[in-house]
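Lecture 7, part 2: worked example. A protein chain together with fructose -6-phosphate.
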Amino acid sequence: MSMVDSFEKIPVKIFGSLEEGSRFIGKEIAHLIREKEARGEKTVLGLATGSSPKSLYAELVRLHREERLSFRNVITFNLDEYYPIDNDALQSYNRFMKEQLFDKVDIDPANCHIPNGQWEKEKIKQHCIAYEEMIEKAGGIDLQILGIGNNGHIGFNEPGSSIYSRTRLVPLDNSTRIANSHDFQNISQVPRLAITMGISTILKARRIVLMAWGQIKAPVLQKAVEGNVTEQIPASLLQQHNDCTFVTDEMAASELTRFKSPWLTGETAWTPAVIRKAVVNMALKLGKPILSLTNNDYNDSGLSDLLVEKGDAYEINLQVFYLLRDSITGWPGGKPNAHLPTHPERSEPFPKRVMIFSPHPDDDIISMGGTFMRLHDQGHDVHVAYQTSGNIAVTDEFVTRFLDFAVGFEVLSGIDSKKSSQILEQATSYLKTKKPSDIDTVEIRSIKGLIRRCEAKATCRYVGIPDENIHFMNLPFYETGTIEKKPMGEEDVQLTVDLLRKIKPQQIYCAGDLADPHGTHKVCLDVVFESLRRLKAAGDTWLNDCWLWLYKGAWQEWDISEIEMAIPMSPDQVRKKRFGIFIHQSQKDMVPFQGSDSREFWQRAEDRNANTANLYAQLGFTKYAAMEAFVRWHY
Ligand code: F6R
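Predicted complex, written out as structure tokens:
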């Protein structure tokens, strides 16, 4: 048994990306189907929905189209479905399966089984018994695919579900309703019930593969794999299955002991980054400033190896202390006329042409508003590129308010252009009859986009950025009108390449949500990475003098031990940033697709910036009101 196995009670296969992980599972499924087919047998697959299996289904469709994998001999049973829900509602799992897989391969629809959200309530028990019988009649499940909920659920078996549970109607945990609310206009529309296979149904499968992608799954994955077997974390019950594998990307695996504290699971290469991580985590855990850590603390925290290799605690403490100290600066664009070799940024050139990429029209001010203002105030030529229109996050009431204004304005000014009256009329009557599952028309989307553009412009004006430095990119991948976006496309990259070539920045800021495998931020980041790769390949030499800094665009922050540039903020700067965020009125109070955090954006930003400042203070540095944090990306 290796030291990793002594922590991990379920085998975990970790891949560089979810695409690679999905290819691995796709290969196993293809092999199983072909092998059984050769024996004249049918393959019975248990299938999941949600965001995790999407890339797997895309891979199965590819295998079907390009490698002639046939699903004629495949029978499927899905884990679950909301209740009640129309089969063709946008959020229904019946619809999801058709769109993602069944309609794109040669499976016989009669072989596809999914609990039905339209079953009559009185007959659900019978239907559930029949569902179990059908699985048995098909010979039992050969391979069950699973995702994992943030609360550890598998299927919709929420914490507390019995290991003996079978297919049944269940209430959804509030945390699940919140987590899944991003598929619905708002939380009140998320069904309260669901039909799900039971834990015993799942455990009866001959083989189980659970997928987990992204940072968001890291804490629960660690509990399921390394924690005790408990019904409070239903996925931990999989430790009792004899052929179960977890397939993850690096982000989802990041809380496992082998990554979190690699010195506990084997030989460690004590690079400065690893030392920094080990010492910072130890200091925070013990509640001690770095310079107060003793040899005993190192030994008690499992870091005796580090002492053996690097000597005394005092020396190591100093090394880490200096690294953190040198990450703090009030000069995000570099300090002009100063020779500071340990400063995170170069002093020259000064001033710098700076390009801030903002995935949505408010990420710049929310995630790096303090730095944004400093860069401008310190004389840099700051450009902002708003990558997407952000139109789906504007409520219909908000549009109506603007439509009313536009109508009033027309009357007031006597304008009577036919076209604008027509647009106004169409938009107003569309909104009056709009159903919750309707996708907005192109007009409504452009009005919503316009509202957000005006807000972004107002923020730039508030910071002092001239109009010609504001770039609205409207990347096409975003323009689907639904929460589901297209993948990065050629046009997205070309628009970005052109803009970068035009501005030739010496410093770029990007939302570095590497860990957000499904979201808009990740696509926006990929577009920039791909554009830089192409520019480099094309020999654009100005790139040699351009540094790329990543801010976290969502509300999480960089791990304190990773931060390479921390920009402190005074209470006044915090207030100024707050007012900058307030300008985004369409995003205040309540926004559609709010997700799992009920705090407003300015509150999330302030909590997060104050937290970074507190962590620095706990480690023994000056206590600032707030801090924004960045990591440099070497491309
Ligand atoms: C869906 C299902 C759920 C999901 C889980 C994770 O059929 O059974 O257990 O697998 O909620 O959802 P995502 O993949 O959307 O994070």
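Residues 442-463 form the longest helix (22 residues). The chain has a mean pLDDT of 92. Keep this in mind for problem set question 3.
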